[in-house]
Amino acid sequence: MGKGWRIVVGSDNAGMGYKDELKAMLQRDPRVASVDDVGVGTRADATAYAHVAVAAARKVAAGEADRALLFCGTGMGVAIAANKVPGVRAVTAHDSYSVERSVLSNNAQVLTMGERVIGLELAKKLVDQWLDYHFDPTSPSAAKVEAVSGYERVNEEEEQ
After folding, report:
1. Global pTM exceeds 0.85
2. Are 66 and 3 in contact, with CB atoms under 8 Å apart?
3. What is the domain partition of the chain in residue ranges?
4. What is the pLDDT of residues 5-38, one digit of tens each?
5. Which of 20, 74, 77, 81 makes an SS bond possible with 53, Cβ 3.0 to 4.6 Å?
6. What is the distance between the alpha carbons of residues 92 and 79, in angstroms, rounded to a whole number?
7. What distance in Å separates the CA atoms of residue 29 and residue 17, rounded to the nearest whole number?
8. Which residues belong to the active site?
């Protein structure tokens, strides 16, 4: 990770309020080296959540960011879209235990939340906790994460 997390944030217009609030929080956090915003910038911007989520996930997959934080109305749409990018594991989490396990058990690099599902203060608390979690590649979960990655590689080979 180096000197801090490189995080990309994004949302559709249904999640923009939380995205902007959490972006500001991340920019002030000493655990964060950089924050890259892939959109949207206004409530009037009707860009589909899929485009924003895939743009963020591609930055993670390319190594341009360590993690992504995405918002939409429920958090589910951006997670589904981000998971279409090879090498990315995105999860929707609205409680502390799920955030913890998303990283420690699943090495998820993308956390998604729904602005219409949880309160802003809870979202802030969960992101604060998320920044402290690091996947242990020597943990028993590493083999399980590798199994998921193996299926992804098989699918890529079948498409060629």
Report:
1. yes
2. no
3. 5-159
4. 999 999 999 999 999 999 999 999 999 999 999 9
5. 81
6. 6
7. 19
8. 72
Distances 8 to 2, 19, 110, 144 between C-alpha atoms, Å: 16, 10, 9, 26
Query: Which overall architecture, per CATH, does domain 5-159 show?
Result: 3-Layer(aba) Sandwich (3.40)
Yes or no: say if 88 and 61 are a contact pair by the CB < 8 Å rule. yes
Class of residue 106 by CB neighbours under 10 A (exposed 0-12, middle 13-18, buried 19+) = middle
| The two structure tokens encoding residue 20 | 């902007």
Strands (E), the chain: 5-11, 32-37, 67-72, 90-92, 110-114
Residue type, 30: P
For the chain, how are helix, strand and coil distributed in percent, rounded to 5? Answer: 45, 15, 40
Query: Whose CA is closest to 134, among 97, 95, 103?
Result: 103
Q: Residue 20 class from Cβ within 10 Å (0-12 exposed, 13-18 middle, 19+ buried)?
A: middle
